[in-house]
Design goal:
With 417 residues, the chain is α+β, with helices and mostly antiparallel strands. It is built from 11 helices and 18 strands. The protein folds into 2 domains: 103 residues, Nucleic acid-binding proteins (OB fold (Dihydrolipoamide Acetyltransferase, E2P)); 309 residues, Bira Bifunctional Protein, Domain 2 (BirA Bifunctional Protein, domain 2).
């Protein structure tokens, strides 16, 4: 009997599934040819993105490095599977420098995608335990948001005007107002002018909302998700960015923005608030040049919280001090992972903020997007107290798998389209 085997990973167990084939059974397996020297002897193997199967033959095989082939033969040599070759069928020739072969198999992108799949499972397992509903909201929306630091892609020819989402926030909050108490989404998001080692114009955002949850509840969710993903895929059980390792077993370190400016940047609280309100450029320069590098040296992830109210975005003002907002960001190894809020539910204040954002975008010569009236109508209808977080899923996978660039954990980043 011949066992049909799709790829080397089916036999080696390195991929997502494992097929047990007894020694001496005839198998048919396909993949790319790899020729290499081992102890001075040329070795031929068939590989895919997840596994490798060594091939032996009494005669010289008429195959070249990079060829796509099917091989039929007798399997033996467990626990390291080997095939004594009986027949080779060359599907068509190949070259080692074929772009997708070199990238997906040889550079390890395929292996990263397997780790990414484990991370997805870990996320869904956590939210199922917490009784969250996984949802899907539209990628094309009437308003992508008015954040001054984000620009959206417009859909050419759309009537009425539509934009690709920079975040699924508005629609997910409408679900909260409609009676969905806990929801999460792994959303494809799109942001213009974002390309580099930490950015890609299209990326995956893990966003979730918990009705009647406060900041502590949202930080605890975040800690649990980071741990679950890291434990699912990290070879060392730690997050890694460059030469920095970050432990995830202990509670995350928390520091307010005011404390960070005073303790790290040696800038008074009053001066920090003045900069936030009057000189954002200097505020962010201090944050980027002094505070973020110091946070990067911490051995555990950091929760930077209590932002000035002028940077509240869609977060509510702090009840004990209206100069601040209940907003937080999580950093690991110097890399920002997430941006979370205790959500603003007051429709009147939210409209005032959005109208101010429209004016500010006009003053700065930035594209101006419509205000989402249905979102505001949902707030007017009554949104429950809630907390939410938006976490860069690609970045988390990158850190947990010790990859250097976000493109290392995406199937087709911008540079490979």
């Amino acid at each position: 009997m011949t066992r049909e085997v799709l790829s080397p990973s089916d036999l080696t167990g390195a991929g997502p599934q494992r097929v047990f084939v007894p020694n001496g059974e005839t198998v048919r397996v396909g993949g790319r040819v790899t020729r290499s020297l081992k102890d001075g002897v040329e070795e031929i193997s068939i590989t895919d993105a997840f596994g490798t199967l060594v091939v032996h033959s009494e005669t010289r095989l008429d195959v070249a490095h990079g060829d796509l082939v099917e091989i039929e033969g007798i399997l033996n040599g467990a626990p390291t599977p080997r095939v004594s070759c009986a027949q080779v069928s060359r599907r068509h020739g190949g070259k080692a420098e074929v772009l997708d072969v070199a990238r997906i198999r040889d550079r390890g992108i395929g292996a990263s995608l397997a780790l990414r799949a484990r991370a997805l499972d870990a996320v869904r397992t956590y939210f199922a335990k917490e009784r969250f509903l996984e949802v899907e909201t539209p990628s094309m929306v009437p308003s992508p948001g008015l954040d001054l630091h984000l620009d959206a892609f417009a859909i050419e020819g759309a009537t009425p005007p539509r934009f690709l989402i920079t975040s699924p926030e508005y629609q997910m909050k409408r679900l909260l107002t409609g009676g969905v108490p806990r929801c999460f989404q792994l959303a494809r998001c799109f942001r213009r002018a974002e390309l580099g080692g930490r950015h890609n114009p299209e990326f995956t955002m893990l966003e979730w909302y918990r009705a009647f949850g406060d900041m502590d509840a949202m930080v605890k969710d975040s800690e649990a998700i980071v741990r679950a993903v890291t434990q699912a895929i990290a070879p060392t059980g730690t997050l890694r960015f460059g030469d920095r390792e970050v432990e995830i077993s202990a509670p995350f370190f928390r520091i307010s923005v005011a404390e960070a400016f005073v303790d790290i940047a040696k800038t008074s609280e009053e001066e920090m608030l003045r900069l936030a309100n009057e000189d954002e450029e200097t505020f962010f320069r201090i944050l980027i040049e002094k505070i973020e590098p110091a946070l990067a040296e911490r051995p555990v992830p950091t929760v930077l919280h209590r932002y000035p109210a002028s940077m509240a975005s869609l977060a509510r003002r702090s009840e004990d001090d209206p100069r601040y907002a209940d907003r937080f960001e999580i950093y690991a190894g110097g890399l920002e992972l997430s941006n979370g809020f205790v959500e603003l539910t007051d429709a009147t204040e939210q409209r005032e903020r959005l109208e101010r954002d429209v004016r500010d975008r006009e003053k700065r010569g930035l594209p101006v997007y419509p205000i989402d009236e249905r979102f505001l109508a949902a707030l007017e209808g009554g949104m429950p107290p809630a907390s939410g977080n938006a976490l860069g899923f690609d970045r988390l996978v990158m850190l947990a798998s010790a990859r250097e660039r976000i493109s290392d954990v995406q199937a087709f980043p911008e540079g490979d389209l």
